[in-house]
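Suppose a classmate hands you a notebook page containing two proteins, each written out with its sequence and a corresponding row of structure tokens. How would you begin to make sense of it? This section walks through that situation. The first entry is reproduced here exactly as it would appear on such a page.
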Amino acid sequence: MPVVLSAPQPRTDNGDYPPTKKWTREECEALEQAGLVGVRDYELIGGVLIQKMGKKLPHTRALRKLMRWLNQLFDLCSLQEPGIDVAREENATNNPEPDAVVLRRSVEEIAGSIHPGDIRMVAEVSDTTLSFDLGAKARLYARAGIPEYWVLDVNGRRLIVHQQPEAGEYGSIQAFAEDEMVQTPLTGEATIAVRDLL
């Protein structure tokens, strides 16, 4: 489970939590410039600074395999962009950094930050953060209208493909087991066995 830096706080005598601070991208940039927070140490999700977990060997291996395959299909596949934009109304308090991003055009053509309209697909490789990736992050990406979201579940040895974002949720969520072949509208005629990504 990700480590949350701003909550929970100790309970007061009446059982309620004291007020917590919601962070913005602007404030996080100021923290980085002051050297108080490392640029790759956290992710900003819903105004909460979430410390990134160290990547274990199975995570690193799966991410390399996923990137190798995606790079064979797409020229515009990128590893861990330094944060992407989400829905306009949520952008100030969210700066997610997916493990992989497939873009519609090259990074050199994109001025400023990467907007949802620039993105064909995002992917997370998940070992210790599965419920977070399938919950909060899936809803965040769906509200941004990102057409396809993959979660490669290392421990469960499966791939969960989210498609058809509408009204803040993905209308289609399909889990592919280790021995199944994956093919989606994004990949066209190309297929791959889930086991070859793990």
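The notebook's second entry, a different protein, reads as follows.
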Amino acid sequence: MIRLNLPQFDIRICVDSKGRQVVYDPLRSKWIVLTPEEWVRQHFVRFLIANRSYPQALTANEVGLRQNGCLRRCDTVVYGRQAEPVAIIEYKAPDVQITQRTFDQAVRYNMEMHVNCLMVSNGLRHYCCRVDHRANSYHFLRDIPTYAQLLELSSL
């Protein structure tokens, strides 16, 4: 897999009975087929936990939600101390450019979750924005916030 613009971590990879490369996802406690997008997810989540102090117990991958009667999945959702969602994170493979359409996907999910922070990463470029629900707008942050900063953003 391609080297990402994220710290390197020891990631458990093996080959399953069907001959596919799989990676162990500690958040879901199971082996997942290793796609380029999953490679990004595993590195980004480990970065959040190890480098930004996000609690592993309050971070979840592949979170289902209903939107217009259809089941959708957020790539990662981070929760606050009262188990309320505070951030949605969407991933793309490293060879996929992050576009407005990528943010639109996260915004659509946010119509249901009402978080104040959206993040998008393809492993090479990372974006984070604070959503202002009152003004129906958002502004980009310079860096991915720590968990404490994320909670501050959520209380504004």
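A careful reader of the second entry would note: The CA atoms of residues 18 and 30 lie 16 Å apart.
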